[in-house]
Amino acid sequence: MFLQHLLNGITIGGSYALIALGYTLVYGVLKLINFAHGEIYMIGAYLGFILVSLLPALPPFFQGHLLFFLLIVFLVAAGLCALYGFYLEKVCYRPLRQAPKLTPLISALGASIFFQNFVMLTMGAKDRIFPQTVGMTTYTVAGVTGTPLQLAIILSSVFLMALLWWFINRTRLGVAIKATSTDPLMASLLGINVDTVISVTFMAGSFLAACAGVMIGLYYGTINFTLGYLGGIKAFTAAVLGGIGNVPGAMVGGFLLGIIEALGAGYFSAEYKDVYAFFILIAVLVLRPAGLLGKGVHERA
Amino acid sequence: MLRLTDVHLAYGHVHALKGVSLAVAAGEIVTLIGANGAGKSSTLKAISALHPLRSGAIEFAGEAIHALPPHQVVARGVSHCPEGRRIFYDLSVRENLLMGGYLLGKKELEERLAAVLDLFPRLRERLAQAGGTLSGGEQQMLAIARALMCNPRLLMLDEPSLGLAPLMVEKIFETVLSLKKGGLTVLLVEQNAGAALAVSDRAYVLETGRVTLAGDSASLARDERVVKAYLGG
């Protein structure tokens, strides 16, 4: 049973990690918790839902090449969400760059409420059922039951994280994100356009969150406009657990949170599944506020 | 090359620059001397567009630059190595330098990296190390090297000798002189007025946001007002 819970935990943990990366990246460059980030994840799930629902209307080629079709779904949903992230920053945070720390936080909550209601009004308040597409057959290997979809989700999460790692360590723009996180003023003195770096950070984070949204939609099969609230808080917990602002920390924190949740649900009580995340959040804040991989805590909003 | 005309700058109610006018010609080393709070660093910040001017004009190579954002001032060829070094501690020495050449093309960047490392061979041995693990002197070298990566026409150095051992200070000023020989224009801000006057061609003395004295460095170094206030005479 342990391995079964572990597998489920890793599947869901990968999504937490992808969303947590968005929190941590944005916190790095702006020292702001983007509380509307969970809604981007929710919008990603809805875009995935809309696109997957289009499948029966598409030419038979796509029905025959489902993996190719899903790849396009991911790219379109994530690409659109990157635009959402871009405009979210431009409209809700950029005008408040010089404002006191609390102001953009309130703006974030406002954006979050706006996105929720926007989706509720356009897509309805009822649960939406994701069309079953691919990888639903279950296989049992050594007593562990899983679906090809689960495996694909885990591999995609790992691939996306590797892609992000490559981006921030091997490309000039990516290193500029790290530089801006350390010292934005110095970065601007080297010719780095800090506004561009911030926009790119929001887009990268939103891209990953949207991928997580589509994955979760495919995995659980139902989505709701309130999805971003719980998902956002859990991913935020994962980011805090790993150390906010720390990229490897968000990855570790995401997987760890997913595993703890799955084990807790499996061995103690499934009804309390969501409570474990909050318990961890409180425990980390009390015992180790810098997070597992964090370096130090500064006084920040 | 660089001309400031009646520049006023204020941080809230603190009036840091009250009409500073100065000029730097191509190929010169010019020093700004003054006590803490006299407006030396504020002058550099004004040139780099880190802080908007209240009034006045800043011209570089015939173009007004005071309304540009900081990254575009760098693109014009003005590099600012600020006080306190401000190394990216978590980034490797190599990454620090690459960030200095952020605006260069890929090929140009490699060439520039090689040229800058020739100037600071010690950094070559430390390329993979995190910037924060370097000694104070090495960090200052890295800060200057990083500022040189963009191949600037004007280099502004803010307190490069601060907190360094005398031998290191000597080395830093030697480097500044060799850069001048290579044709670089340098605007230097220094508390260590003696050393700065020794390497520079001309100097301005700033007091409470105003230029109170100006002239060539050799005669300023003999001026009794300067000797008394800044050279410990």
Describe this structure in words.
The complex is a heterodimer of chains A (301) and B (233). Chain A is mostly helical and 301 residues long. Chain A has one domain (2-287): ABC transporter involved in vitamin B12 uptake, BtuC. In chain A, 73% of the residues lie in helices and 3% in strands. Chain A has helices at residues 2-30, 37-53, 60-64, 66-93, 102-123, 148-170, 172-182, 184-189, 194-220, 227-242, 247-267, 273-287; strands spanning 128-129, 139-141, 144-146, 222-223. Chain A has a two-stranded antiparallel sheet. A two-stranded antiparallel sheet of chain A has the order 2-3. In chain A, helix 1 packs across helix 7 (172-182), helix 1 (2-30) runs antiparallel to helix 11 and helix 4 (66-93) packs across helix 9 (194-220). The longest helix of chain A is centred in the N-terminal third of the chain and has 29 residues, at 2-30. The N and C termini of chain A lie far apart (42 Å). Chain B is of the alpha/beta class. Chain B has 10 helices and 10 strands. In chain B, helix 3 runs parallel beside helix 6 (136-148). The two termini of chain B are 34 Å apart. Classes of the chains: A mainly alpha (301), B alpha/beta (233).
